[in-house]
Amino acid sequence: MKKTASMLAIWISLASNIVLTAIKIIVGLLSSSQVLIADGIHNAGDVIATATAYSAMRVSSKPADLDHPYGHGKAEVLGAFIVAIILGAASIYMGYHAIHALFEPPGKAHLIAFAAAVISLIWKQILYVYTMRIGRRLNSKGLIATAYDHLADVYASIAASVGIGLALIGDHFSYSILAYGDPVAGIIVSFLVLKLAFEMGRESFDVLMERSVSSVQIEQYAALIRSVPEIKRIDRLRAREHGHYILVDARLGVPGNLTIQEGHDIIRGIKQKIQSAHHDVDEVLVHLNPWYAES
């Protein structure tokens, strides 16, 4: 069910990006709207980004094997990192185009271009909310990256809508200066998209470098471990994200006179406790150290 929901979301995103790319470029060419053409080219990059996320999610869903005993979860994180790079490149392109437009004579605005930008804005906002909701529910890095990609498009569509709208108002009331609202809005949005790409890329990089989960999560795992009566000491407790799931590693002190069977039962009980309370934990590795009461 989880795989079906995530794949449906990514397919809807891919199809939407293809349709919006075609609409923006065609309408942009017909209306000579440079901002809409630029937004369409940005959307073409989104097609590549979404296809990358889809491929990474397919790989990450594969079960563990001999070569990848911890599973393929990081493929999804790698895909999210690539999406961040594509977003960053798109923001630089949009910024360059917007700055260049400031030094060119403003073009004539068309109502059809404004309508296309508004439709894109509404469509992408719906896709962002839908994809992010599923991505967070499934803890899917690929879907969350795709949702942020939609959010970047929302920013771009806002810029296009505001820019074209100001130009239409300027044409109607003979305020030529308003025609430059398009490139100014584009510059602002390019910075917003670049910031979004940087934050997304940094988060993916942290996971790839096996950064620890938050101290709050670590303390939650520790509390569950301490609730086991036989545990006398936590020598070490670590946890890291591995794509859409988490791996927990613990070294624990237990009475040294316990049998191997008793130790095995303790380990199994700890694993069940943590996984029952935290469904995103896929594996709990426990090493037991002997503990003796001080004389």
TrEMBL record:
InterPro entries: Cation_efflux, Cation_efflux_CTD, Cation_efflux_CTD_sf, Cation_efflux_TM, Cation_efflux_TMD_sf, CDF_Transporter. It is a multi-pass membrane protein. Gene3D superfamilies: Cation efflux protein transmembrane domain, Cation efflux protein, cytoplasmic domain. Keywords: Membrane, Transmembrane, Transmembrane helix, Transport. It comes from the Bacteria. Residues 10-209 form the Cation efflux protein transmembrane domain. The keyword Transmembrane applies. The chain crosses the membrane at residues 7-30, 36-56, 77-99, 111-130, 151-169, 175-194. The keyword Transport applies. Residues 215-290 form the Cation efflux protein cytoplasmic domain. It is found in: Membrane. Belongs to the cation diffusion facilitator (CDF) transporter (TC 2.A.4) family. This is Cation diffusion facilitator family transporter. It comes from Paenibacillus aceris.
